[in-house]
Structure formats: structure tokens, C-alpha cells
Amino acid sequence: MKAHAITDRIYALHADIETDDLFEGIWPIPDGVSLNSYLVKGDKTALIDLVRDWTEAPKVLEEELAGIGVKLSDVDYLVLNHLEPDHTGWLAEYKRLNPKVEILATPKGVELVKSFYKITEGLRAVKSGDSLDLGEGMVLRFEEAPNVHWPETMVTFEPSSGVLFACDAFGSYGKLGDRVFDDQFSPEEHAFFEKESLRYYANIVASFSPFVKKAVAKLAALDVKVVAPSHGIVWRKDPKAIIDRYSRYADYMEGPREKEICVVWGSMYGNTKKGLDAVIAGIEDEQVPYSVHRVPNEDVSYVLADAYKSAGIVIAMPTYEYKMFPPMAYVLNLFERKHVWGRKAFRLGSWGWIGGAKKEYEALVAPLKWDCLEAEEWAGAPDAERLAALREKGRELARKVKEA
Ligand code: FEO
Prior knowledge:
Elements: E1 4-5, E2 10-17, E3 33-41, E4 45-48, H1 57-67, E5 77-79, H2 85-88, H3 91-97, E6 102-105, H4 107-117, E7 123-125, E8 131-135, E9 138-144, E10 154-158, E11 163-167, H5 187-205, H6 209-219, E12 226-229, H7 239-251, E13 258-265, H8 271-285, E14 290-294, H9 300-309, E15 310-316, E16 319-320, E17 323-324, H10 326-337, E18 344-351, H11 357-365, E19 371-372, E20 376-379, H12 384-403
Parallel strand pairs: 4-5, 5-6, 6-7, 11-12, 13-14, 13-15, 15-18, 18-19, 18-20
Antiparallel strand pairs: 1-2, 2-3, 3-4, 8-9, 9-10, 10-11, 16-17
Helix pairs in contact: 5-9, 6-7, 8-12, 9-10, 10-11
The protein binds MU-OXO-diiron (FEO).
């Protein structure tokens, strides 16, 4: 991997992470993720965002810097837009290798440097409007962007080039390989990154969507020519594309959403699945697009991505030991945390000896304020009359989604 020149003084660096490890200890990344850093050279040199010691990322960073003639010890300033350890996990070791480096972060960020890494010297707190003059026309301006997605977050802007170092904002899962710029990827590759940016957003950023909207509004005042996030593609040809995409994602929280239905199901012996097939036939009758996710077979990370964008949700599950099918309780818990609110919804499921899912389900979805059709529950296998009713419920939900 090599450094990529954004301008003759600004370079994109990245380490592709390929691991069975989970992102944030929760989310699968089967296609990897990139940890991006940036180098800005004036008379002084600044490194923007660091890496975690994860699958040799520090070694990759060091090699990429060497490729442009920069040693770790040449860096005068380390700007930390965000302190989550995927970008800072290597900080204590880096500070030991380059003790003169001055670390810049927001006041809350400086406190996190102290608490995570026990570094107390060479720290500078910056706030919105502050700047750092590196010489040779290179100036870094700082803008706080709280809760995108931690409270200490900021972005950094270099006015002469229009490069916005956005950290987690505008990021994506997915490794980059030996290309980094939006104009270097094919439409098929962009389709992959679009899916992975939605999943990244739904998993990590969704809860903070009102803050994303505020940050995007704040950025409108800047003449952004390049969006340089800390994960994923660097947008130099069409920076508006990723800003608009993130605005759309932020809007999904309160709406408008896609006129689609996300079907989440679990079935022990196939009786709930038989009922669900009838519901799906009803959705198809109305020609509304839908996605289908079986839990726990499929990781909830993927369920969240489709649920977050969709105006409609179907929950299909049996009663299990007088309560809900347990994996669905985890799904609904994450729907509440990630603000999958205000959907048109329908629940169905079978039971063996006695029901019981209803009570737990209703308690879990109450905070989501879903507009729910009357649920369909039945003992054992669904009969022909039940299947007809379920198909009609699928049609009814699809019509509501079309009108949403
Ligand atoms: Fe990429 Fe919030 O860390």
C-alpha cells in the first residue's frame, strides 16, 4: 500500500483491516474496513488521525509515510478528530516513538487522551474556529461536530485545498486496496460501498442522526472540494454525493424513508415460516420491494441496515418458552437503541401449547412508536383461512408503506 496524493502537500494514507474480529466488538466486517489517516505538509508536518494496533496497521502507516519521505518522528502535530480507539489505539506507542509530537483534540478529546492513554504532556485543546498554521499556505481549521458520533468529535478543514478531514462522518465499511479516490472505482464497486456505508451508518452513526444533520448544515458554509473520511473512499470528484447520501441516511430516522419493507423472521419448525410466505405473497401482490433476514442465522448488523432505511417492518417469530423467540428480542433491543422508530409494522407467529410472545413484544416495541397492524397468531400450523388472512395483511402493510 502507498500514500496517495490529494494535493502536492496533502496525502491519504490507509491500512486495510482484514480480520475475523468484529468492529466495535459487535459488527462483522467480512469485506474489511480501512483505517484512513492524512498527512499535511507545510513548514511543519501534521498527521490527521491515527490507527489502532490491528493487523499491522501501524507498520502499514509507517511504510506509507516512508514512501513519501516522512519518518514517524518528523510529525510535529497529531490531530485527533475523534478518540475512539480504532483511530487512537496505537497512540501511547506512537507518543513513545515521537515524544515531541503535539496532540490536538477538542477539550473533551484531550480528557479522553488522558483517560485512555495516560498521556498528560504535549496536549492542546482546540475548539470551533481555532486554526493551526503549518506554513507554506497550509492551515488546519477545526470545527467541533459533537456526537458524530462521540461527544468529543471534531472535523478539520484545510481551506486552500478545500479538503475536509471528516473522521467517522461520511465513512464506510469495506477495504480499499490500492485505490482510494471515488473516481477510481467502478459503478459495481460503488454499489458495494453504498451498501456498506448504509450498514456502517445504521450500526454506528444512526442513533446520532440529529447531530449528523447539524454537522452537515454547518459544513454548508465551507467550500468543501474533497471529503476525506477516516474509513472508506476519499471523495474528490463528487464530494456532494457522499454528503447527500449521509443527509438521506440522517433523514431516515424521522422520515422520509424508502418505500420498502424489511422482513425479519425466525422459525423453529417452519410453521411461522409458512405464515410468513403468505405475507410475502401479499407484499408481492402490491409490488412493494422487500428484504428478508432470518435471525439468528444472519447477523443483526445486516438487519439494521435494511430496517433503518425501510418504511415498513414485518416481525415473524414463534412463541418460545412463554415469551418471544429470543434472537428477536435482541433485534428489537437494537432497533430501540438505533432509533428504528415510526415504522408501519406487522407481527405474526405460531405457538405450540400456549402463546406468550405478545406481552414481551408489545413492551419492547412501545418506545419505537410503530404504527402496527393487528398481529396474527395461531396454534401449530396455519390453515387455509389463516393463510388467506396473512396474505391480506401483507397487502395491507404494503399499501400503507406506499402511502407513507
Ligand atoms: Fe472509526 Fe468512531 O471510530
